[in-house]
Design goal:
Blueprint lengths: L4 E5 L3 H13 L4 E5 L3 H10 L4 E2 L12 E4 L3 H14 L5 E4 L5 H10 L5 E6 L20 E6 L5 H13 L3 E4 L2 H29 L5 H5 L3 H5 L7 H10 L1 H23 L3 H16 L13 E6 L6 H11 L4 E6 L8 E7 L2 H13 L4 E2 L2
Parallel strand pairs: 1-2, 1-4, 2-3, 4-5, 5-6, 7-8
Antiparallel strand pairs: 6-7, 9-11, 9-12, 10-11
């Protein structure tokens, strides 16, 4: 399968990042795109991300060898009927949605499963839109590939190789398996994070003392609750059966913990935390997963004028750019009161090494 022209329907964070990655690693490939926001398309054209602005899903896409559906999950399915009417059998369709069962059932019903391959780049950000798209967003991230029934092995292998050429890590799964896995490691955690935020909001005092001190650990574990409500509504509606299975098991775990607490069974509580710690520590840290990794550490700071400026100057002298920096008022790590966030793993490691050289005490998670 030779890929010379690629089309995009939807050019937000994920679509824009894939398009930018294609232009970075395959500059000879011609890219066309359509989305409702004309200004975004024109911006992408000015930047050289796309070569052709499309005004509709029409015959312009007939020249494509590969088309990415990167609109919201429910919207992607709506475009399939139009594409079936106009596309040649040689064009491979893929999507970038977080759930796969709905769209696979749709392509099967339309009789185009033999030219569809589902895709889910397990990378992202709390920020949305093309303006936040980056060519390296999918780098070292698992990119789940779910071939349609009847799709040739040749096309599956070709798309897998093309995905790997964008520096992602392709992993071929059955679409049903994908949806259950993501329900457990991505969808339910988002629900839990949002529910924890709601818990604090509901139980907080009129003076909002909980909100005032909810920095550090609480803010870290609920970070994903800042994601798009519209996107997560669609994910929950298109993967509800799998999320419910995971939620039921989680509720059983909570009930067991509730029982152990009522009986003041310290041994069982200890074993629960120990088992969770050991399993979490065994999770590989070599690639991005569905929940975006944050490269942040905490460090002690002397309470004196210019302390933050000194630290920032040290990092700048090492050519390290800060993504974020802030004071943590509740001291979880003894005197660790400064949280430093970097853009990537390389910057993180350089920053830790450099600051330890200057005898800063660093706390890594």
């Amino acid at each position: 399968m030779k890929i010379e022209t690629v089309g995009f329907i939807g050019l937000g964070l994920i679509g824009g990042s894939i398009a930018k990655a294609i232009k970075l690693y395959h500059p000879q490939i011609r890219i066309m795109a359509y989305m409702r926001n004309r200004e975004t398309l024109e911006q992408a054209a000015r930047e050289g991300t796309i070569d052709q602005v499309c005004t509709a899903v029409n015959d312009d896409f007939c020249s494509c060898d590969l088309i990415y559906l990167c609109a919201p999950v429910s919207t992607n399915a709506l475009y399939l009927e139009e594409l079936k009417k106009i596309l040649p059998d040689t064009c491979l369709l893929t999507d970038a949605g977080s759930t796969k069962t709905d769209i696979h059932e749709k392509v099967t019903a339309l009789g185009i499963a033999d030219r569809f391959i589902g895709g889910h780049p397990m990378a992202g950000s709390e920020k949305t839109g093309y303006e936040n798209a980056k060519p390296h967003l999918i780098e070292n991230a698992y990119y789940i590939i779910t071939p349609g029934e009847g799709l040739s092995q040749e096309k599956t292998d070709a798309f897998t190789a093309f995905t790997a050429s964008l520096k992602a890590i392709p992993l071929v799964l059955d679409y049903r398996q994908h949806d259950f896995i993501t329900a457990c490691v991505s969808h339910l955690p988002h629900l839990i994070a949002a529910s924890l935020v709601e818990l604090v909001k509901d139980l907080d005092s009129p003076e909002e003392l909980m909100k005032q001190i909810a920095a550090g650990g609480f803010k870290d574990i609920t970070r994903i609750a800042s994601s798009s409500p519209e996107m997560w509504e669609q994910i929950c509606m298109t993967n509800s059966s799998n999320i419910l299975k995971a939620l039921e098991h989680y509720q059983m775990q909570l009930e067991k913990l509730r029982s152990e607490l009522q009986e003041r069974n310290g041994g069982e509580i200890h074993d629960f935390f120990a088992a969770a710690r050991d399993y979490r520590n065994s999770i590989p840290d070599t690639s991005a997963g569905p929940l975006k990794k944050v490269y942040a550490f905490y460090c002690d700071m002397v309470d004196e004028a210019g302390g933050i400026a000194t630290l920032a100057t040290i990092l700048a002298s090492g050519g390290i750019s800060l993504r974020n920096i802030g004071i943590i008022h509740n001291r979880e790590f003894e005197e660790a009161v400064l949280r430093v966030e970097l853009y990537d793993e390389d910057a993180y490691q350089k920053a830790v090494t450099l600051l330890r050289k200057y005898r800063y005490t660093i706390y890594e998670r």
